[in-house]
């Protein structure tokens, strides 16, 4: 019980730390620019997962490259996204959502959207199990996915 409590506290603190580190930005305008076209990832794009043990100790991490990745928005619904599965999307002044192969929807917070710059992110927490030395270990994974795109 104590491990779960500390894991929850650690996760909340990590999310607060991330949100405090962001600069305040003005709200996205209600009238959004046209998203149709090709948007290329910049050096500001990242996809990372940090794996923590139940006691909050960092267990492992992954950092997936986003170089040479792009999003091609064909119209108001269809998009070619870097996940290599059929995708559709929806856009509101605050959220960009992708439906992957009709199975999973990923909601991203829209950080900035201008004629030439599109930025959005998500932070998700999941639990996993792994085996080490014939022992099953419960692990908490925190995914950071940040897309910074230009056209």
Describe the structure.
This protein is mostly beta strands and 151 residues long. The chain is 13% helix and 53% strand. The protein has one helix at 2-21, and strands at 37-41, 46-53, 58-64, 70-73, 78-80, 87-91, 95-100, 104-113, 117-132, 135-150. A hairpin with a 3-residue loop joins strand 7 and strand 8. The longest helix is centred in the first third of the chain and has 20 residues, at 2-21. The protein is elongated. The termini are far apart.
Tag the structure with descriptive keywords.
eight-stranded antiparallel β-barrel; disordered N terminus; 10 strands
Can you count the beta strands?
10
Q: What is the distance, rounded to the nearest whole angstrom, between the alpha carbons of the first and last residues?
A: 49 Å
SSE sequence, one letter per element: HEEEEEEEEEE
* Fraction of residues in helix: 10-25%
Biggest sheet descriptor: 8 strands, antiparallel, barrel
Output the structural class: mainly beta
Reading side by side through the largest sheet, how are the strands ordered? 1-4-5-6-7-8-9-10
Strand content: over 45%
Briefly say what this structure is:
It contains one helix and ten strands; from the N terminus they run αββββββββββ. The chain is mostly beta strands. The N terminus is likely disordered.
Secondary-structure topology with pairs:
Layout: H1 2-21, E1 37-41, E2 46-53, E3 58-64, E4 70-73, E5 78-80, E6 87-91, E7 95-100, E8 104-113, E9 117-132, E10 135-150
Antiparallel strand pairs: 1-4, 1-10, 2-3, 2-10, 4-5, 5-6, 6-7, 7-8, 8-9, 9-10
